[in-house]
Design brief:
heterodimer; A: alpha/beta; 5-stranded parallel beta sheet; two-stranded antiparallel ribbon; 12 helices; 8 strands; disordered N terminus; B: 343 residues; 5-stranded antiparallel beta sheet; 11 helices
């Protein structure tokens, strides 16, 4: 028997053509950049792991030309001084003052106090853009300060997980980052798997994707967990509990009881009554059984 | 959920809801219950349609697009169109699918019932209280659906859930419903628990229902004819209806005007049928009729003045008692064929 090698086709595991998938948040980045260039200040809302920081960096890159004074991306990580210093460094604002000795002579420089830094940055923001990531973490003093500098006509771009709907957050135009599509999530998962040198079948990816919901961060995390052999269970919060619908449906069987009553059909009346009581019993049972188990120490 | 759990759950709930044990409908329920899992190349259904399963798997997570209500709607439409051409119960296929996706909400991961909405539908908010695929809890669930399947097959085969409820409750209304549901096409038997009105002796026996009269029944066994209720012979506590073999019920009227009764009655008699007469006749010589009295039986033929009153009287009995009598009036003849097995 002759086997023609030319007729054989090696089937590689089918992969969706990655180049067809639109880049994440492309449209939003363009919209935000346009608004920023027109002098607007914005608040962008997106859940943890929805790609806020990526959007911030892209906006910075595309708005670079419009702000001669520069663009700063900062996030608050526990203390105010480094936060302000980081703004100063990125926007090239000097946050030191001359050091004066006892004779009144200048000897070198000394860092400003926090209030002086706020004052200095606030008066030097002309033609500059301040992007604050994770704005929901900001302490009240900083929130009040940025509210002041916004009132003075300076531009801000805030990214936050939640919208506290007060103070500075109410003053800004609001925009929510949309959820990525299933294909974009799959794309992120495949890329992460390639980075980790992990070979996953589409079947395994489809199974893992159930745990990610529509969250980019979880998409990567699930793949990392898979490479480590950790099964972390379901993580996203996009749930809807349908048990109330079932209970309502069962309680709806009480209708049968009244139909029986109306038609003078005693069998229907009794069966409907029994169904109603059973649905009530199930309701109490379900309430008791679905309570979360407490772990020791919680 | 395992394929078998889906199949058993769909058939159990489906046959109960659609009230059918038809083979095609059962096959369609099973097929419908496997349809959601064509999004997984590891599943039995997915392996059967591998290219399609792979296509879906590359684009969507498991338990998303094929496990949605939209998929149920699509299947329902396809099933309806196909049923126009090949006669079958179009509800079976989408119903199987519907039950399968709903039972999947009992698993920790949940199902995207409302796809393309990103939410995952679960039943019970605590994931630890839900049922892991292949776990012991799932076997218990399988056992429950197996029992439900047995119950639904039994009730559907023996006349439906309504009859089952009627038999369980043993009420007079249930017997009436069973009589009207049979549409005069079946013998109706009734298991009676109660007592004789004459001597208060308990009674627990099966009777054959001749007819319903108001809220009571005229019934018979191999020994005689009885009537239920305080005006009759048997006080009933519990009546369990039992539909029996097919039968034909017919009522015709017979008129007499100063003529001999028996020849006309003789003409009615047919082979393989029972005839019961009801009505009042004025007769010439009532004193010649001997009726006799059995307190435990219905007086089917009584003399009042110069009339004879018949109530579900067997035709042979009437012929014997009214021999050579001339009469005027009309009778209703209830003709039942074939006779019930009891007599």
């Amino acid at each position: 028997m002759v086997l023609y090698v030319a007729n054989l086709k090696k089937r590689s595991p089918a992969q969706v053509n990655l180049s067809k998938i639109p880049p994440l948040h492309q449209q939003q980045i363009e919209l935000i950049s346009q608004a920023i260039k027109q002098g607007e200040s914005l608040l962008i809302i997106g859940e943890q792991g929805s790609g806020k920081s990526t959007v911030a960096n892209s906006v910075k890159a595309s708005c670079q030309d419009a702000f001669e004074g520069g663009i700063a991306i900062v996030s608050y990580s526990g203390s105010i001084k480094p936060f302000l210093l980081s703004i100063g460094r990125q926007l090239k604002i000097e946050l030191t003052k001359p050091k004066v000795n006892s004779k009144g002579e200048e000897v070198g420089e000394t860092p400003m106090s926090v209030d002086e830094m706020k004052e200095e940055i606030g008066s030097n923001l002309f033609n500059k853009l301040l992007i604050i990531d994770d704005a929901h973490r900001l302490p009240t003093s900083i929130k009040l300060w940025i509210e002041e500098i916004h009132k003075e006509g300076n531009q801000l771009l805030l990214f936050s997980i939640t919208d506290p709907a007060k103070g500075i957050f109410v003053r800004l135009g609001k925009m929510e980052l949309p959820q990525p599509t299933e294909l974009q999530i799959r794309d992120i998962m495949q890329r992460e798997a390639i980075t980790l040198n992990l070979c996953l079948s589409p079947s395994r990816l489809a199974a893992l994707q159930r745990r990610t919901g529509k969250n980019l961060m979880l998409a990567k995390k699930v793949i990392r967990d898979e490479s480590l052999g950790i099964s972390s269970g379901v993580e996203h919060r996009d749930y809807v509990d349908i048990s109330p619908f079932i209970m309502a449906g069962l309680a709806g069987l009480a209708v049968v009881r009244f139909i029986g009553l109306g038609l003078g059909d005693r069998t229907l009346y009794i069966v409907g009554g029994v169904a109603m009581v059973v649905s009530l019993m199930l309701k109490y049972l379900a309430r008791g059984l679905t309570r979360n188990r407490k772990r020791l120490g919680t | 959920m395992m394929a078998i759990t889906h199949a058993v759950a769909s058939v159990a709930i489906g046959s109960l809801a659609l009230q059918t044990t038809d083979t095609t409908a059962i096959a369609l329920l099973i097929a419908g219950s496997q349809l959601p899992d064509i999004d997984n190349t590891q599943s039995t259904a997915g392996r059967m349609v591998w290219p399609l399963a792979r296509f879906i798997e590359e684009r969507w997570p498991h338990r998303s697009i094929t496990h949605s209500f939209w998929a149920t709607v699509a299947i329902a439409i396809a099933s309806f169109l196909l049923s126009e051409k090949f006669q079958f119960n179009w509800l079976a296929l989408p119903f199987g699918h519907f039950v399968a996706i709903c039972t999947d909400t009992l698993t920790p991961e949940g199902v995207q019932l409302f796809w393309p909405s990103p939410v995952w539908a679960v039943c019970g908010s605590n994931p630890n209280a839900r049922i892991r695929t292949g776990s012991k809890a799932e076997l218990m669930l399988l056992g429950f659906f197996g029992a439900l399947l047995a119950f639904s097959a039994w009730t559907v085969d023996t006349g439906g859930v309504k009859l089952w409820a009627n038999q369980l409750l043993g009420m007079r209304d249930g017997v009436m419903q069973t009589i009207s549901a049979s549409g005069g096409g079946k013998h109706i038997y009734v298991d009676i628990e109660g007592s004789w009105i004459s001597d208060r002796q308990p009674i627990k026996q099966q009777f054959w229902v001749i007819k319903q009269e108001g809220n009571e029944f005229v019934i018979a066994d191999s020994k005689g004819i009885y009537k239920t209720g305080v005006m009759g012979q048997i006080a009933t506590n519990r009546l369990v209806p039992k539909p029996g073999e097919p039968a034909q019920y017919q009522i015709i009227g017979v008129d007499f005007s100063e003529e001999e009764i028996n020849p006309k009655l003789q003409q009615l008699i047919k082979a393989n049928s029972l005839i019961f007469l009801t009505g009042i006749l004025t007769i010439d010589s009532p004193e010649e009729v001997r009726t006799g009295l059995n307190p435990k039986q219905l007086q089917t033929l009584i003399i009042v003045g110069n009339t004879v009153q018949l109530e579900s009287c067997p035709i042979q009995w009437a012929i014997e008692k009214l021999n050579y009598q001339f009469g005027t009036g009309s009778l209703k003849a209830q003709i039942i064929s074939p006779p019930p097995k009891l007599l």
